[in-house]
Give the backbone structure.
Amino acid sequence: MDGDGGTSMVLRTGNDYIDSLRGRGLTAYYRGERVAEPVDHPVIGPSIRSVAATYDLAHSPDPGLRGLATAGAPGGVTINRFTHIHRSAEDLVRKIKLQRVLGRLTGACFQRCVGWDALNALYITTHETDATLGTPYHERMRRFLAHVQAEDLVCQGAMTDVKGDRGARPGRQEDPDLYLRVVRRTADHIVVKGAKAHQTGALGSHEIIVMPTLALEPGEEDYAVSFAIPSTAKGLVFIVGRQSGDLRCLYDPPMDQGNARFGGHEALTVFDNVEVPMERVFLLGEVAFSGKLVERFAGFHRQSYGGCKAGVGDVLIGAAALAADYNGVAGASHVRDKLVEMIHLNETIYSCGLACSHEGRETASGAYLIDLLLANVCKQNVTRIPYEMARLAQDLAGGLVSTLPSARDLDNPETGELVLKYLKGVPGVATEDRMRVMRLIEHLTLGRGAVGYLPESLHGAGSPQAQRLVIGRQAPLEEYKRAARELAGISSRPRSGG
Ligand code: SF4
Ligand code: FE
């Protein structure tokens, strides 16, 4: 069973979720100003709507989609899949399919996977830590999970420390807070200090699950800490990151935004002496298990990208195909070939996400873990493919992607007719529709949407080199050598004199 059960389960709607975020009084800032109510903020609001889509899909009239977005929990209750512990390889496959659907639906990062991946990584690792060291973490984790499932909560997965001097280990930094650490321990709580960077969906989360950022060594016990706290906890400060084109949400009509409905946001999350009850602590000084936790969380999130980025890729392919239609070049053989190339690249990502899920195996905790080698290959592809897809989409759309006049120029009687006349594409397609599709491609490859589709594909869930380290570690190179030796007739015994 997943959590402890015993609490009544709810399957919230997107509106329930949005209501649950109101009036929380988070200490949050954007462009130097306090964000009074993230839900109503023009820059943060689209991001919260993306998360809301993960709730609404659980109520879809389409039983197939509903089945993807929900999962069975103990006692025959139904929970949102984003709070579910994977119980089979099929569950892992459903995760990828769900993420593709939501990526296509929102054209954005829907933010709820990070916490989901943290729940699953912790479920497996706390079980293993307890089995080895007799610690009490797994039962705490299950009680926390039961709470998340019963309330249908969004968790933020906080792993990436700010890291300061990359050449210095956590304890050797000039400022010891550049990796989040325990600064005080009592019998019933700990106090932590530090900051986590690039926190996806920070202002739309109910809970923050903190994990260490790297495998730690003896002597670094204060940094080997994992726990969960409500986003409203005292001492938390959220500083929202800028995104290219974000001011369009403040100053421009929806048409100039490309995708005005959905978006994503990230924040620098500062922990200024935050008190964490011991009941919410899932790792405290056991350095040997920090690497396992990091590897599993990263593995799950590297799997995730095989679904969500393919879903956003679907939107980009569709936009590029529409642009070609509206430009009147859809019949050209090189245009068709470029679209085929985009499809091939996008399905490569998806195939990797599916493959590492199909090869998932049960762990001692009963939860399933993806194949780590294939998950890392998945993410390595994701660090490259969206950039090539973006190049192809811009190629197909033409230069207008970067020089298009504003929707306000359509509204201005002095320029409106000129824009409509001179930016016309094929007959039968409104100039305004051609402009909209160009804006969407601009948004996904140069604007706010590009933050999630490009640099996040590069650095999210670990930068490319992090995957190469795991790939090097996970691949059975000695087995490959043995196979080669056998076929080449290489014997281990040298001839005399050889
Ligand atoms: Fe989910 Fe993708 Fe966003 Fe990560 S980047 S939270 S996997 S949608
Ligand atoms: Fe991410």
In short: The chain has 19 helices and 14 strands. The domain at 292-479 is CATH 1.20.140.10 (Butyryl-CoA Dehydrogenase, subunit A; domain 3).
